[in-house]
């Protein structure tokens, strides 16, 4: 703060001081206005993403936009604080104790040079200290693992040579350790870095690895890991209820220079919303097309409830296999009306009623099936019945070719499957469990553009299955893959792959 004693006596100096402070005040106002503007943008983005209109903005677009605005806000706030020449009003955030304990601590002591008292010259003694922790990083560091295997001979007979067997490897005679192969897999299928970009990153460290070499490692690892994916799929087939969904997987069509559209199918189980104890899991399967026969081949002798979207292949399966019951997704119904909410009061009313169903579901999530069924019978059934009468009445008033007519027809033609959750507490209201599992595949597709072949699409499905199951249980996929690949290379019994599942490493 400027004190009276600091004011100059000279009029011109005083005038210059006043003008300088006026300029600083204007700069502060400009910085403050910029900060407020950026905060308003962030709030608008958050409302757009998480509010009533959440489905309008793509998740990836939202994250990209938000991180850029937040970076700009940090810059503006820093400039504002510097212009004020005083510490910021808000307390500075400290990370003491919040950084993971397993990280290596490198301590540095910043001490005074002179330990003599500035007043009397006596020797100072330590009365305390301030400790600050900052997160540091060492760029990816490669090392060479040298394996020596001494050979021993006998001086007496000179005929016997004894030597330990070489450790088993995923790539026989190759240079990668299982940890490096795991790193390539995680970077490609979890962090969405295509192999050519990984090769560029390694080249910055002086490691020249051709993309085709990395692809060879991925293929060999996928061969070892495929029985694990198949084991997960087999366990899913024995479930009482499954979620299913599919997404496109562009694949290079050999000899044409173009891509064809393959499909990656996702099958998931998660009984936690109805209080189940079975471990949640997901499996991906690649197929060259979207024919309805693919679902039947993937599910084998599955008997139970299949929660799906409106794809006709599932309906065809249920007609051929009477022991399969379809439960349709209310989120897909809501999405079709959501697109019309700005221009249609009917769509707005439908959304309001569906929202009432989700309020009830939030209250019963995690409770036993019978309790869920009882609550739904008391509170949800009347909403569903009234909504059906409302849609049937409106369907006679709108053109069948209009968007609203299509949305109404989509719901009414699937009403039995949409209503099935009322009589079975195991069934969820929507298919979002498997849709969340599909999202990483879409992100990988966006970055990698396309798979090189049908075999590459299947490798994609195999490795993605194991990585996503690691994510379900909060397991580091790199650590798990390293251990698993090492065991597989060492000859882990094929009939005991169940012992390698990610959920066996939990608890």
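Sequence proposed for the structure above (507 residues):
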């Amino acid at each position: 703060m400027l004190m009276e004693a600091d004011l100059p006596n000279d009029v011109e100096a005083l005038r210059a001081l006043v003008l300088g402070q006026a300029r600083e005040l204007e700069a502060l106002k400009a910085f403050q206005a910029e900060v407020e503007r950026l905060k308003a943008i962030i709030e608008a983005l958050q409302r757009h993403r998480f509010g009533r209109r959440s489905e309008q903005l793509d998740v990836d677009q939202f994250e990209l936009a938000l991180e850029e605005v937040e970076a700009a806000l940090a810059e503006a706030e820093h400039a504002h604080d510097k212009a004020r020449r005083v510490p910021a009003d808000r307390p500075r955030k400290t990370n003491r104790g919040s950084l993971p304990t397993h990280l290596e601590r490198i301590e540095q002591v910043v001490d005074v040079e002179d330990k003599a008292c500035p007043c009397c010259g006596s020797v100072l003694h330590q009365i305390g200290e301030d400790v600050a922790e900052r997160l540091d990083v060492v760029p990816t560091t490669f090392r060479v693992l040298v394996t020596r295997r001494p050979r021993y001979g006998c001086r007496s007979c000179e005929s016997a040579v004894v030597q330990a067997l070489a450790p088993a490897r995923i790539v026989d005679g190759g240079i990668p350790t299982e940890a490096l192969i795991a790193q390539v897999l995680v970077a490609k299928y979890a962090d969405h870095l295509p192999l050519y970009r990984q090769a560029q990153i390694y080249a910055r460290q002086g490691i020249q690895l051709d993309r085709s070499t990395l692809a060879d490692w991925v293929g060999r690892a996928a061969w070892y890991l495929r029985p694990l994916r198949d084991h997960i799929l087999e366990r899913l087939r024995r479930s009482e209820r499954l979620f299913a969904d599919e997404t496109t997987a562009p694949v290079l069509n050999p000899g044409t220079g173009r891509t064809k559209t393959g499909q990656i199918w996702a099958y998931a189980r998660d009984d936690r919303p109805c209080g189940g104890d079975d471990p949640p899991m997901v499996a991906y399967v690649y197929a060259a097309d979207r024919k309805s026969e693919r679902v039947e081949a993937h599910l084998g002798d599955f008997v139970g409830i299949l929660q799906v979207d409106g794809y006709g292949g599932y309906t065809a399966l249920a007609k051929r296999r009477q022991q399969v019951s379809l439960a349709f997704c209310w989120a897909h119904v809501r999405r079709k009306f959501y697109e019309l909410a700005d221009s249609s009061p009917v769509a707005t009313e439908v959304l309001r009623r569906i929202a009432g169903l989700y309020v009830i579901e939030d209250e019963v999530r995690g409770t036993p099936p019978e309790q869920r069924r009882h609550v739904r019978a008391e509170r949800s059934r009347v909403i569903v019945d009234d909504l059906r009468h409302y849609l049937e009445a409106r369907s006679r008033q709108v053109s069948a070719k209009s968007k609203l007519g299509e949305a109404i027809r989509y719901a009414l033609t699937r009403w039995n499957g949409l209503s099935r959750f009322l009589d079975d507490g195991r069934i969820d209201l929507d298919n979002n469990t498997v849709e969340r599992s599909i999202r990483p595949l879409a992100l990988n597709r966006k970055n990698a553009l396309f798979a090189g072949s049908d075999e590459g699409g299947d490798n994609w499905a195999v490795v993605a299955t194991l990585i996503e199951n690691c994510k379900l249980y909060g397991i580091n996929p790199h650590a798990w893959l390293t251990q698993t690949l090492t065991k597989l290379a060492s000859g882990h019994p094929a009939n005991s792959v169940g012992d390698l599942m990610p959920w066996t490493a939990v608890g």
